[in-house]
Amino acid sequence: MKILMVTDPQMCSECENCINACKKTYGVARARKTDTIPIFCVQCHPDKAPCRRICPNDAIETIDGEDDEILKVNEENCILCKLCMIACPIGIISIDKEKKSAEKCTLCLESDNIIPACVEACKDNVLNVFSIEDLQELKNDENLTEELQEAIKTFKSIS
């Protein structure tokens, strides 16, 4: 099941609770802040993800080989060439200096969290996690926000 994070920038108060929660959970923020809102990995389709396609050592792989299509960095295979950072269309991959590996958002699927740490920490309800199936159902909703429609368009362009 494909899962996406959707951000509503109009509701963001720029508190950075989401980024701090990620730092606390992983030791490094797997998101970055723009002028106004945090940006997270858009979870490109594994076969089309620029970070995975450019990696010379196959360090970017699906979590546990499941069909959830969420990519993670295999720390043992990462050689810190930083090509994934360059290839990422939104520049969200970072380096964890302690682990000596690249890091990217996995929506906390490799942890025991049911809800990603950033979503749980967001006091303004800016962040939401949806399955693609949920987004397809919401697509016909007349009250659907412009941001969600943009998220659907973005997903379609990278999947």
Secondary-structure-based class equals: alpha+beta
Mean pLDDT: 83
The CATH architecture comes to: 2-Layer Sandwich
Number of strands: 8
What percent strand? 15-25%
Low-confidence stretches: none
CATH class: Alpha Beta
* Strand line-up across the major sheet: 1-8
> What is the string of SSEs from the N terminus onward?
EHEEHEEHEEHEHH
| Tally of discrete structural domains | 1
Which fold name fills CATH's third level, the topology? Alpha-Beta Plaits
Described by strand count, sense and barrel closure, the largest sheet is:
2 strands, antiparallel
- Taken from the alpha-carbon principal axes, the silhouette is globular
Structure description:
With 159 residues, the protein is α+β, with helices and mostly antiparallel strands. It has one domain (3-136): Alpha-Beta Plaits, CATH 3.30.70.20. The protein is 28% helix and 16% strand. The chain has 6 helices and 8 strands, in the order E-H-E-E-H-E-E-H-E-E-H-E-H-H. It has helices spanning 17-26, 50-54, 83-87, 117-121, 132-138, 146-158; strands at residues 3-7, 32-33, 38-39, 60-62, 71-73, 94-96, 101-103, 127-131. The chain has a two-stranded antiparallel ribbon. Strands 2-3 form a two-stranded antiparallel ribbon. A two-stranded antiparallel sheet has the order 4-5. Strand 4 and strand 5 (71-73) form a beta hairpin. The radius of gyration is 15 Å and the shape is globular. The relative contact order is 0.25. The model has no long low-confidence stretch (mean pLDDT 83).
